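subagent[fold] <- orchestrator: predict structure for attached chain, return tokens only, no commentary.
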Amino acid sequence: MTRDEALSVLGLKSGATRDEVRLAYRELAQMLHPDKFGSNKRLRERAEQQMRAINEARDVLLKEARPSSGARRGSGRAASSGYAAGSPEAIAFEARSRANAAETARLSVVAQLRTMRERRRAMLGMAAVAALVSLVTMRMRGTLGMLAFSISSMLVLWGVVDAVILSSQVDALKKRSVELLRTRDAARRIAEEAAGL
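subagent[fold] -> orchestrator:
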């Protein structure tokens, strides 16, 4: 993975500090963790692949990232921003980081959602064509007719079943996208309020 790809995966701009990389990683890992899709095996597997990419991106960026600017005046999460713990600046920094991670996660989920919808549409199209072939070959006699009818019937069944499975994945991704959108908006409001203090 290149540096630019790693920055894109974590939703960071070039010149990000080590602390910004760590904070972006932590927030994104929480939002895209496979446990968020625990009930759906296929989505969980995709989330595990994403986590591997997020981990790799973090490792690439931490090897090259410049140290954070500013002295640490606090401890824990607020210290990573270089601001005093609990200060409006530290709150605004963390809220902006959370909003950025939520938007990065949401874009990832939306890309998966688009892929699932396209795949579902393709499966339904295949099932429709196979149903048409099945209707045409139903009247044919002989081995070739029976073989064509059997294959097209199986394709209809496969297409419909896969489309139904994909529909449940689409619904889960839509729900997750809305949750991430709410998280992003809430974090942006907190950042604006903290910046106004």
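orchestrator: received. Logging for downstream: Residues 70-80 have pLDDT under 50 and may be disordered. The CA atoms of residues 92 and 191 lie 4 Å apart.
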